[in-house]
Specification:
With 358 residues, the protein is α/β, with parallel strands linked by helices. The protein is built from 14 helices and twelve strands. It has two domains: 3-127, Leucine Dehydrogenase, chain A, domain 1 (Rossmann fold); 144-304 and 309-329, NAD(P)-binding Rossmann-like Domain (Rossmann fold, 3-Layer(aba) Sandwich), CATH 3.40.50. The protein has helices spanning 3-9, 51-71, 93-104, 120-127, 144-163, 180-192, 203-213, 242-245, 265-272, 280-283, 286-296, 300-308, 310-324, 328-357; strands at residues 14-20, 25-33, 39-40, 43-46, 77-84, 110-111, 172-176, 195-199, 216-217, 230-233, 252-253, 276-277.
Length: 358
């Protein structure tokens, strides 16, 4: 598929490639939609197998950021950037300064932050070259606790809809990925008395959650077949696919990972199996809420309150899905698109008034 065809398929506005071979920087920035505001989205540092895979990841993630900001009620659009390479490299300054120059070239149309494989310290290097970066040390910093809290509230809303009670005490939650967000989600759940089964590729992270929260550990491939009330994917995407659908044994899926569905049809297939799905960009919006707080100058407690609104937003999405006989994923898309179109109409109206006044 040609590049413009890929962009047009999901209505992306811009795709930027930046290469500085002398320092090993290969970056891609995707901007999906800037109707609501500048495209905000983190920088992912990953060892992609091909350039095409990296580009597709950037495009998919950027679109998710547009919808995430729209449903969270933020005046931001969606963007995302990826850096192709070894995320464990210690030679980071020049790579991230090069990335900062790429971000600066967009003149504020895109604002970056940390993501998988990057950290607030990396964003400090980006800041040396551009002011269009958030998630800095000493400011909003690590968004993981707020992301986890929003996911937790989405989980409680799903429980209320499914069971008639949002209490997660004595429920069994299987958590895939206990890195930054997964760890804090386990903490929130443990404080409510939830039974936890966890997995991660990093055994040290698993051991920490087992020791601190009394979780039970299973091998990475075993997590899909765990009989539990809720499955929480908090690692990478495409974990809901033809293979995992055959073994999933849960009532609810709500997690913090992006792009959990390998294909859009899997939302309908989950529904057919009686599994309630919390669209990822709806329930994991705490991260973008946290960095928006840095842009707007919100105090930390306001970020948590805003993330808590995910509970009611999810209930509205569930009502819409039920009323129109569509999946929760389709309902989320519809609600996000409706807000974008409403704001786009307002922009046109303002322009029309200005023209008329002249």
């Amino acid at each position: 598929m040609e590049i413009f065809e890929r962009m047009s398929r999901r209505e992306h506005e811009q795709l930027v490639f930046w290469n500085e071979p002398r320092i090993g920087y290969k970056g891609i920035i995707a901007i999906h939609d800037t109707t609501l505001g500048p495209g905000l989205g983190g920088t992912r540092f990953w060892n992609y197998s091909t350039d095409a895979e990296a580009m597709e990841d950037a495009l998919r993630l950027a679109r998710g950021m547009t919808y995430k900001a729209a449903l969270a009620g933020l005046n931001l659009g969606g963007g995302k950037s990826v850096i192709i390479g070894d995320p464990n490299t210690r030679n980071r300054e020049m790579i991230f300064r090069a990335h900062g120059r790429a971000v600066e070239s967009l003149a504020g149309r895109y604002i970056t932050a940390e993501d998988v494989g990057t950290s607030p310290a990396d964003m400090e290097f980006v800041r040396m070259e551009t002011s269009h970066v958030v998630g800095l040390m000493g400011k909003s910093g690590d968004p993981s606790p707020v992301t986890a809290y929003g996911t937790y509230q989405g989980m409680k809303a799903a429980a209320f809809y499914k069971y008639g009670d949002d209490s997660l005490a004595d429920k069994h939650v299987a958590v895939q990925g206990v890195g930054h967000v997964g760890y804090y989600l386990c903490q929130d759940l443990a404080e409510e008395g939830t039974r936890l089964t966890v997995t991660d590729l990093d055994q040290e992270k698993v051991d920490a959650v087992v020791n601190e929260f009394g979780a039970t550990a299973v091998a990475p491939d075993e997590i899909y077949g765990v009989k539990a009330d809720i499955f929480a994917p908090c690692a990478l995407g495409s974990v809901i696919n033809d293979d995992t659908l055959k073994v999933l044994n849960v009532d609810i899926i709500v997690g913090a990972a992006n792009n959990q569905l390998a294909e859009s049809r899997h939302a309908k297939e989950l529904e057919a199996k009686g599994i309630l799905y919390g669209p990822d960009y709806l329930v994991n919006a705490g991260g973008v809420i946290n960095v928006n707080a840095e842009i707007e100058g919100w105090p930390p407690e306001k970020s948590l309150r805003k993330a808590g609104e995910i509970y009611n937003t999810f209930l509205k999405i569930l009502e819409l899905a039920e009323a129109e006989g569509i999946s929760t994923a389709e309902a989320s898309d519809k609600a996000a698109e409706r807000r974008i179109e409403e704001v786009r109409f307002l922009h046109r109206t303002e322009l029309g008034c200005l023209s008329y006044g002249m």
